[in-house]
Structure formats: C-alpha cells, structure tokens
Amino acid sequence: MNKTESQFFVGSGTVQLNDFSPDATYPATVTGGTTLVVQGSGAVTINWAAPMGFGSATIQLRRNGTSIDSGNGSARNWTGTLADGDQLTLWKTGNQTASANSAYVDVIPQ
What's the pLDDT tens digit per position in 8-22? Predict the structure, then answer.
C-alpha cells in the first residue's frame, strides 16, 4: 500500500498514518485508508518506509495492533510469518513534530 497524501504530526502522542491506497505492484486489500489486510498465510518479507519531509519521528509497523518493527522512517525490511486476515498499519510514536510525505508497506511472499 502507498501513502497518497502528506500528513503532519505535532508534538506528543501516537498517531496512525493514513491516506493509503493499494499498490498495483504488490496487490492487497486496504481498508479505511489505513490498514493493509493480508491475503494468504506463510513466510513473508515486508518492505516498508515512512520518510519524513521535515523533522524526525519514530515509526512503528504493527501487526494486529502490536509493534513488530520500528525505525526513523527510513526503508526497513521485516521477515516473518503472517496469517490470512492479519492487519498491518504504520504509527508515529513519541514527542516529535514532523511530516510524512510518502510511505509504503509491501508484503512479499517467500
């Protein structure tokens, strides 16, 4: 899924990244503009990033609400196992002011 709009973060708190749409290269169901719903089960690599247009922020990749990886928004890879129906989301955490101009989450089966 790809982020289609800029999003500004001001101050503290946890904020979910939004305005995502499906990526034609890595087809997936995106619900509510925020959540990638996994189709199928098995070993995967998730390529993801949420680079900041300005400022810095800690970004979490969450599966079913639980953080499975985090970073400063630069490109990252997570390898593991997903189940059909798992939900993947990105969240800004901490006390930062920043702007996410783009982001993506790509699930690649192994």
Answer: 988 878 999 999 999
